[in-house]
């Protein structure tokens, strides 16, 4: 096919779409089902209605080929685990008795059975459920979900393409099951898994699938020759099948690198590649391997992870270059639109001109279809769209929102000494112990406590004008009083004020910093039914006035025990926001760090002796390619130290991190120079404690003993056993006892019971320690 005919054949598609619905209908239905207010049949009806609505919206927008199978009640990797029959032994009876209940048991656990481990989906804030595989795992195909959803779309008269997690990525994301031999690698199960995929592909073809997309984002990471050989074998074997649809192998989030020639020569009919700035090297690499003759190329030129409008002319230039490199070039976002909110038109509080700088999922589908039209028919067919796009880009570039000379001057004046504590840790820790006088194995929580219905109602009433600010603040004070009283009675050593005044750990601060925009309906799935509204970091950042000092001081006035000041760190403020793309991220991080530094210093001046600066996103933002990591870690750790470097030696700095693989950033954790770090560890059975010990981490640490992502209440003995495991890696004088994370999403009954058990566990294990 010539470049001209390839252009004429250009179509628009997406890899996936937000699941929740415009008013988070899916979240409400699932949580209603968990509480017994919604039947399983009613939940299924809601889900089917949302799928139909999504597909129809895509088709109406001009998307020629809609995705199926990307919809999920909880997580698409968990759906894949069900599809291939890799149900952990402890969940088999529940799944057999009631597949839906068993599905949610794997995701959330029950009082008697632990859930699957959860961790971040590559370098995003989406969490997936980690498959557990062992040498005795027996796979069995279950394509019911994938086939049913394909048939739903086809029944609407749509062209549909099922989307599956690819077999290589599935195995590379898995972990050895409990009891698996040391050194077991799930990828060794590939030959056992491929026949299951073959069966699913055959079922989908029989149901009417012309194409099936197999997502292999794990191949954009550094891969060993053996792993690349496995990928080549997988697609050689799947490509050789006779009873299958055409195969589109998709990668995203970064450049494909050494995996590109492997997939380019595989006997599959198409590749989907990311061509946004993060993966721009794919363009030259594709040319270097001779392109994709006689294959379909789906070009991800619209950023599926950020919310800024696309530069249509730049994307058309990229697409024009690609025309000579494939038999057919289609236009898409760089990844699933799961990672962005649904629709900008729901936003009423953002100035209309600024709103034109933004593109959520529906606006991105319009960009995709515009680009496909321009590629197929020429730029003359989209003259008006190009003119409007140029105006929007110019408006943003010239806006005073984006540049504050005072912020830039302050950032330019930063010296290396600003990012260093006045004394090394060995000297600081003695001063802190003398000042705080805490016991061995001190107990604390991560920060937030349950947000009650009364509190949410009060916040809604304040927004709606039904109560005034004074009435709302009285409600917040009552919550803080209850949280402090509960912690004292339970016996916790370092208290928190519970964050009753906060809507979200990033949004709360973003709303008080200049340079940020807040959305009202910009919900994005983080995990399961947990949705967040990432703020938009649009310009230079500064802090007009203190943000947390008043409430922390009020909590401290209620108790003689130390109350932690709670802040969100600069890297997480970037990672969990939609960040400006018009300057290096390190520059933006420095601006945020300086604003937070002012808050840290004000907390200390007000008498706060323990200050926690959370950085749960430090690992998730780690570049996927090893070569790109040193530069990122340099500015990320500098930003944290700049935030905390101005306090006295006897002020104790804590930080916290969420589910992630920490082994490859332990040195960076060390470089933060925090006095205490708390990490999620309950589901991974203290793996992070062993990683810290292997590194020789010299500071204090609190690997979590209570999994806050599950409603189950761990027993005191269960928490004590985890604590004993932690003590085998970290000495008692440096070990803290805490939950995995904040308790905002938990209910009060389970919180009370779990924290009581946590304190009992700490006292029990403390009593087992040898006398000093």
Automatic annotation (TrEMBL):
Its EC number is 2.1.1.14. L-homocysteine binds at residues 446-448, 499, 614. 5-methyltetrahydropteroyltri-L-glutamate binds at residues 24-27, 120, 576, 620. Binds 1 zinc ion per subunit. Residues 441-763 form the Cobalamin-independent methionine synthase MetE C-terminal/archaeal domain. Pathway: Amino-acid biosynthesis; L-methionine biosynthesis via de novo pathway; L-methionine from L-homocysteine (MetE route): step 1/1. Signal peptide: none annotated. Its cofactor is Zn(2+). The active site is at residue 709. It holds the Pfam family Meth_synt_1. L-methionine binds at residues 446-448, 499, 614. It catalyses: 5-methyltetrahydropteroyltri-L-glutamate + L-homocysteine = tetrahydropteroyltri-L-glutamate + L-methionine. Residues 13-323 form the Cobalamin-independent methionine synthase MetE N-terminal domain. Keywords: Amino-acid biosynthesis, Metal-binding, Methionine biosynthesis, Methyltransferase, Repeat, Transferase, Zinc. Zn(2+) binds at residues 656, 658, 680. It comes from the Bacteria. Catalyzes the transfer of a methyl group from 5-methyltetrahydrofolate to homocysteine resulting in methionine formation. Belongs to the vitamin-B12 independent methionine synthase family. HAMAP family: Meth_synth. PANTHER family: 5-METHYLTETRAHYDROPTEROYLTRIGLUTAMATE--HOMOCYSTEINE METHYLTRANSFERASE. This is 5-methyltetrahydropteroyltriglutamate--homocysteine methyltransferase. The lineage of its organism: Bacteria, Bacillati, Actinomycetota, Actinomycetes, Kitasatosporales.
